[in-house]
Amino acid sequence: MDLPTMEDSKIIFALDVYDRDTGIELAKNLADQVFAIKVNWPIILENGIKIISELSKYSKIICDFKLADVENTDKLITEKVAQYGAWGIISHAFTGIKSLRAVVKSAGQMKVFSVVSMSQESYIDNVYDKLVDDSLKAGVFGLVAPANRPDRLKKIRDISGDIKIIAPGVGAQGGNIISAIMAGADYIIIGRSIYDSPDPIGAIKKFNDEATKL
Ligand code: XMP
């Protein structure tokens, strides 16, 4: 894929805005500073699924839809997202290995990431090891684990080999980029600390500098 993303950046930008023009402008301006851009429901609900194709002109797009349904429904959603050129999709893992396998099978070229622990405490905290196990067995490309809970992140890294880990929770949720990378994160997901900044490009540059100091 010939896109202006910075392959050596460790930042995934969480583009959590509603407005199309704001989203496109941010994507255009920030694409060459980030590894990928993650979209969540806000921009899709406001603009429809075609916004994925529009944004894909600027960066690899990861759809954070946190799939959590039975296998057939997860499959239908995944196939639809793939048609619009997304690079990756995020699924929950707590619905079990059948659903995860359905997502992986229907993803085509898309990379599948599964959530094994949240950046806030949740009921899946008690089963993160089983979720890692199921995710590895299902053949996902990567895991989502909390950057702002480095002890938990380290435990997840220790049981998951060298699979990619993408980690939200830096900045607005209190996490620190260096401790997250030291604990085993490959990429750090950051939203509000970038798009709420008066200087989003400067904010990303600072995070990139911090990440490459290690
Ligand atoms: P902020 O603004 O907090 O944005 O930097 C973080 C982004 O990541 C999402 N998020 C999560 N996604 N597991 C996930 O898969 C999590 O535990 C988690 N916590 C935050 C959030 O929706 C936002 O897009």
UniProtKB/TrEMBL annotation:
Pfam annotation, one family? OMPdecase
Annotated pathway: Pyrimidine metabolism; UMP biosynthesis via de novo pathway; UMP from orotate: step 2/2
Residues forming the Orotidine 5'-phosphate decarboxylase domain are 10-207
**Presence of the UniProt keyword Membrane in the record:** no
Q: A Gene Ontology molecular-function term?
A: orotidine-5'-phosphate decarboxylase activity
Q: Which residues cross the membrane?
A: none
Q: Extract the CDD domains matched here.
A: OMP_decarboxylase_like (cd04725)
Set out the biological process GO terms recorded for this chain's protein: 'de novo' pyrimidine nucleobase biosynthetic process; 'de novo' UMP biosynthetic process
- Catalytic activity field: orotidine 5'-phosphate + H(+) = UMP + CO2
Keyword annotations of the record: Decarboxylase, Lyase, Pyrimidine biosynthesis
Q: What is its EC number?
A: 4.1.1.23
Read off the SMART domains from this record.
Answer: OMPdecase
Q: Does the keyword Lyase apply?
A: yes
> Which residues take part in binding substrate?
16, 38, 64-73, 119, 168-178, 191-192
> NCBIfam families this protein is in?
PRK13813.1, pyrF
Main role? Catalyzes the decarboxylation of orotidine 5'-monophosphate (OMP) to uridine 5'-monophosphate (UMP).
Please report which protein family the annotation says this sequence is part of: Belongs to the OMP decarboxylase family. Type 1 subfamily.
State the protein's name. Answer: Orotidine 5'-phosphate decarboxylase
The species is Acidiplasma aeolicum
